[in-house]
From TrEMBL:
Name of the protein: Lycopene cyclase
Matches recorded under PANTHER family: LYCOPENE BETA/EPSILON CYCLASE PROTEIN (PTHR32098), LYCOPENE BETA_EPSILON CYCLASE PROTEIN (PTHR32098:SF5)
Region (Disordered), start-end ranges: 46-66
Domain of life per record: Bacteria
Organism listed in the record: Sorangium cellulosum
Length: 499
């Protein structure tokens, strides 16, 4: 893959971009991965409450009668990261099935995480510490955030481990199988109907001509990620890229250092209405995971967004990093984000629980869903086990206090000003990160790890506004008054709780 250095292309060039992007994803990942990308892209068309997989006609499931027996205690629909829940539930003595429209545990992801997440993987009881250690393929001395036209801000103790995502999910799959979990590869959940004691599921097999079949569970766990019809979070982060070889190593902004993770970096101002961001995480020797992404309001991102972002990725990669880059493993997805300024995604019934990206309880600023879900893994499994017996039991998960503050910042980034003001986003980010850096590594790292205390967050806002008073106009211009009110109220609530 060779990347050029141009800016925004015209319509014909854009079509070429898309064809070339399609060909490159197919070449590196195969036909099945390309169709996974196209399915995700097409799913943006589905209206909320309608599953993207409801394409084939079939009988709608009938809600089970009171007292009806169920095939399983728990069915987990979606075998991505949430597959990790299956062996924990089975170990608690529950009858568990996992189904996925593709192969279960075949991640099209690469994950970076910090020490807390590494520890949580073994604390959950799922893996021994030595097994987790073997899944860490790289560690960094530091990470950095760098803004176009601004500075570079190093930070320690954040996203400083690269995890072998495929190895992690393969190990979880093996553990689930050993504990008797039923694994239904290439089975999509298309619909469900809830009764008082069980949920009936309509499931479509991927093979051509296969009929829709029925299953039932006492609890349905919706782990379909962004493709869930209940994934109604107001923000989304389209992300594309993957594992590359051939990037130039060494010092300098356009080279990779194997002991440094690039957490956030921009290479230009707002273009095509978006502030694009890059990240680069070295993995196994000679390999680096590079992503291009942007923050958007969920309603602003339509079908085809990932493929078109891949077009930009291939065209502009050389603006970010030098070298003879070759894509060896494409990874991509829409990561939902909930700003906390609007209603949270909600399950449609008492016997349905949303987990992972469908629930979007991770940070709306970093979108680190892997980290957030792994930290909560044992607690989530315990909540689900309780919900099988008592579907009305409230979840014990507590939202990290800092999310009450960061969602508004993400909402601000989701509709950046263009035209003559296209440089404002970088200027704001540069000021904000200069302030964080000056507040010290503990505070800076705490924000990126979802651990910042509300009082520190308010200090961070005040100091950013003192250095860049235009931020008041930018906030008022980007957010409706009601959202600003909710933001303020959320912050006051968390400040009060923290006292
Ligand atoms: C490219 C990329 C890189 C990322 N990197 C990081 C990182 O470095 N660190 C971090 O903390 N987080 C990262 N994340 C976020 C993290 O991957 C997600 O938060 C996490 O995977 C969410 O887990 P999940 O189980 O909810 O959904 P997913 O892991 O997305 O799994 C959803 C599954 O549902 C299946 N599915 C969809 N529709 C149906 C259906 N109808 N029936 C059955 N199955 C269905 C899909 O095939 C898929 O396997 C990244 C995300 C992306 C997209």
């Amino acid at each position: 893959m060779r990347a050029g250095g141009g800016g925004a292309p015209g319509a014909a060039a854009r079509e070429l971009d898309l064809d070339a992007a399609r060909a490159r994803v197919r070449e590196a990942g195969g036909e099945a991965l390309l169709s996974r990308l196209e399915h995700l892209d097409a799913a943006r068309r589905a209206a909320p409450g309608r599953a993207a997989d409801r394409a084939r006609p079939g009988p709608a499931p009938r809600a089970p009668d009171r007292g009806a027996a169920a095939d399983y205690d728990v069915v987990i629909a979606g075998g991505g990261l949430s597959l990790l829940l299956a062996p924990l539930l089975a170990a608690a003595g529950l009858r568990v099935a996992v189904l996925d429209r593709a192969r279960i545990g075949a991640a099209h992801r690469e994950w970076n995480a910090g020490t807390a997440e590494i520890a949580a993987l073994s604390a959950s009881g799922l893996f021994a510490p030595a097994e987790v250690e073997r899944l860490v393929v790289a560690r960094y001395a530091e990470g950095l955030c760098r803004w176009h036209g601004g500075g570079t801000y190093p930070v320690r103790g954040v996203l400083d481990h690269a995890i072998d995502a495929a190895g992690l999910l393969a190990a979880a799959r093996a553990r689930a199988e050993a504990l008797g979990v039923t694994l239904l590869d290439e089975h999509a959940l298309v619909e469900h109907a809830e009764g008082p004691d069980a949920v009936a599921l309509a499931v479509a097999e991927a093979r051509a001509g296969a009929a829709i079949r029925g299953l039932s569970a006492r609890l349905l766990v919706d782990a379909r990620g962004a493709a869930s019809p209940y994934a109604t979070a107001d923000l989304v982060c389209p992300t594309v890229g993957g594992v590359l070889t051939g990037l130039a190593e060494g010092d300098g902004e356009r080279r990779i250092r194997p002991d440094v993770g690039e957490i956030l970096a921009t290479t230009e101002d707002v273009e095509e209405g978006r502030q694009h961001l890059w990240e680069a995480f070295p993995g196994r020797p000679g390999e680096t995971t590079v992503y291009l992404f942007y923050y958007a309001r969920a309603g602003d991102v339509g079908p085809g967004a990932l493929l078109s972002l891949y077009g930009r990725f291939f065209r502009l990669l050389s603006r970010y990093k030098e070298g003879d880059a070759r894509l060896v493993r494409p990874t991509f997805g829409f990561i939902p984000g909930w700003s906390r300024l609007s209603a949270a995604p909600r399950a449609p019934g008492r016997r349905v629980r949303l987990v992972g990206d469908a629930a979007a309880r991770h940070s709306p600023l970093t979108f680190c869903g892997f980290g957030a879900n792994v930290r909560e893994l044992a607690a989530t499994a315990a909540d689900l086990a309780r919900a099988v017996e008592d579907p009305g039991a409230p979840s014990t998960a507590r939202d990290a206090p800092v999310h009450a503050g960061t969602g508004a910042l993400a909402a601000l980034m989701a509709r950046p000003a263009g035209g003559a003001r296209a440089g404002e986003m970088n200027a704001l980010l540069d000021t904000a990160f200069a302030v964080l850096h000056a507040m010290g590594n503990d505070v800076y790292a705490a924000l990126l790890r979802d651990e910042m205390q509300p009082a520190d967050f308010v200090r961070f806002l005040r100091e950013t506004a003192a250095r860049r008073p235009e931020v008041y106009r930018e906030v008022v211009g980007a957010l409706p008054l009601r959202a600003i009110g909710r933001w303020g109220a959320g912050l006051v609530r968390e400040l009060y709780r923290a006292r």
